[in-house]
Amino acid sequence: MAEQVLVTGATGFVAGHVIADLRAHGYLVRGTARQPGDGVVAADLTRDEGWAEAVEGCDYVVHVASPFPIEAPKSDDELVRPAVDGTLRVLRAAVAAGVKRVVLTSSVAAVASGHSGGGVLTEADWSVVDRSPAYQKSKTLAERAAWDFARESGLELVSVNPGLVLGPLLDTKLSTSVQLVHRLLTRDVPASPKMGFSVVDVRDVATAHRLALETPAAAGNRYIVAGEHLWLRELAVMLAEEFNPTGYRVPTAPLPTWLFHVVALFDASVRPAKAFIGRREDVSADKARRELGWTSRPARESILDTAHSLIELGLAPNPSKKAVGSMST
Predict the structure, then answer these.
(1) What digits encode the pLDDT tens for the residues 128-185?
(2) Using the 8-state DSSP alphabet, how is residue 158 labeled?
């Protein structure tokens, strides 16, 4: 009989791929979201109601749901409290239902933020909360709370810590991470500030969650799943090489840091990026490769597949074709 997995945040970018991967490998999947739908039950991270019913009869839980804002919150608690309290709600329900294992979607944001020195970070490292912005703080405190709870309750827990998640979209909703590619492809930004990320493909992130669920020795472990550091301008150049010959005008010029800070004064959607300016995100995924047998695509493939899906879904129309169309009417 096929095993049942509950996936939280089922309508999200990462969760959608996790669900698709699990189903492709023979699992029965039940999803949660704030609103019920096809194969999705209603459960809200800010409320106790619905979680016992959601997890009932499930063998595993993959907890993906977490607040990820486009704009900086007015206070850190707007992100921290829902992330921590929501995670504990899910874990308490999992223990009560007797699930075999919970896989938690954390982030390199819980590993790499707030460090002043260089060097490659591993699962032994934690973000420095007192020097971290709201989102990074929320991911760190939520994961720490999960590990504390697991130790106290005896729950079998594994965390997956992805870098910047890119790759093909499953619908027209733009995740915060995919917006980086969207803004470059649509020329919504004039140049690239000096900010960088460890890129990982959403399909490989989904595989990592399943491997974390299936690998007996993974219990009690964190796993970074991310590639090499990539500056945003390098990402822009890859897009320009692929798409500018077809009519796009991806900007590849660097944006001076002083000008970025001026823009951030007036554009709230830019402010969360301030934490990344001038900072490398060097993390190692060797543990996931060694212990889970995880493999990953090249960053270039993930970046270009993100852009192709944006175009195919009509989210980034070719500007030259729009111009031709307007002239012919």
Answers:
(1) 999 998 889 999 999 999 999 999 999 999 999 999 999 999 999 999 899 999 999 9
(2) E
d(CA 106, CA 222): 9
Is 139 considered catalytic here? yes
pTM for this structure?
A: 0.93
Single-letter code of the amino acid located at 219: A
**The domain spanning residue 122 has which CATH number?**
3.40.50.720
When divided into structural domains, the chain yields a total of 1
Question: Is 220 within a domain?
Answer: yes
CA angle 314, 272, 238 (to 5 degrees): 50
Does 291 score more than 70 pLDDT? Answer: yes
What is the distance, to the nearest Å, from the Cα of residue 204 to the centroid of all Cα atoms in its chain?
12
The catalytic position among 137, 139, 274, 322 is: 139
Residue 64 belongs to what domain range? 4-168+199-226+282-298
Give the model confidence (pLDDT) of 189-216 as tens digits: 889 999 999 999 999 999 999 999 999 9
- Compute the distance between CA of residue 263 and CA of residue 117 in angstroms, rounded to an integer: 28
Flag whether 136 is in a domain.
yes
| Inter-residue contact 37 to 79 (CB < 8 Å) | no
Nearest to 177, CA basis, from 202, 160, 153: 202
